[in-house]
Amino acid sequence: MRGYRHIAKVAHALANETRTRIIELLASGPKTLDELSEVLGQSKANISSQIRKLEEIGIVVPRYQPGDRGIRKTVELRAKRIVLLLE
After folding, report:
1. Distance between CA atoms of 64 and 67, rounded to whole angstroms?
2. Residue 87 falls inside a structural domain
3. Any long-range contacts for 75-78 (C-beta under 8 Å, 24+ apart)?
4. Does residue 66 lie within any of the structural domains?
5. Mean pLDDT in residue range 41-62
6. I need a labelling partner for 32 at 20 to 30 A (CA). Which of 41, 72, 84, 87 fits?
7. Is 26 inside any structural domain?
8. How many domains does the structure of the chain reveal?
9. What is the DSSP annotation of 35-68?
10. Domain that holds residue 42
């Protein structure tokens, strides 16, 4: 069972508009940082920072694939549903 600290971290992550929008976009399937950056109109550096926070709490997982210029990182949701159990 996860404690209240984890619940607080998840709630904090979901309270951020950019991270919430990233989650909404990933609901339709994996995306690259370039795709997320373009759709959200934000720098890749900012998107990467937001993704890292979502990775830390287990909401998204990275996937690495060969790309045109090296390794390409895509990100996908770990689950289609996020539930906070407050017990």
Report:
1. 9
2. no
3. 75/22, 75/26, 75/30, 75/31, 75/32, 75/33, 75/36, 75/51, 76/26, 76/29, 76/30, 76/31, 77/23, 77/26, 77/27
4. yes
5. 95
6. 84
7. yes
8. 1
9. HHHHHHT--HHHHHHHHHHHHHTTSEEEEEEEET
10. 4-77
Please report where in the chains the tokens 């934000």 appear, as a residue. Answer: 42
Q: What is the pLDDT of residues 10-19, one digit of tens each?
A: 888 888 999 9
Q: How confident is the model at residue 5 (pLDDT cuts 50, 70, 90)?
A: confident
Report if residue 85 sits inside a domain. no
Residue 19: other Cβ atoms inside 10 A: 21
High-pLDDT (> 70) share of the chain, %: 92
The structure tokens listed for 55 are 């990775």
CATH number of the domain residue 60 falls in:
1.10.10.10
What whole-number distance in Å separates Cα of residue 75 and Cα of residue 32? 6
